[in-house]
Write the structure tokens for this entry.
Amino acid sequence: MSIFAVFTSMFWFPKPEVVSENVLEFLKFEKDYLYGEWNLSKKLLTLTIPFSFLALGLAFWKRNLVAGIGVVVLIATGKMIWSIQNAGESGKSILIPAILGLLICCVLIYYGFKKLEKK
């Protein structure tokens, strides 16, 4: 559900009135990265996405709350590190939204697990 919310967030969040220069620079970096040359290292790095979703699915299939939250934390941390390492100062613009999103996601996962345990 949280992944669906992220993918559709552009439709239910209002367009910001003012956009930080760092955010614009980071979005340009990501766009250039995606449209740039796809060498072997970029292709291998991209494979971490389906593998992380596979690990997430496996953790929840096994009903392992700690492993599931651990995978979510690793995914978010990996994205934050990649952003700062590759985009520099503009990559830091995602830190606060990413950390807040991670915390909300972890709380919702925990709440969902506890609700399912009662059933």
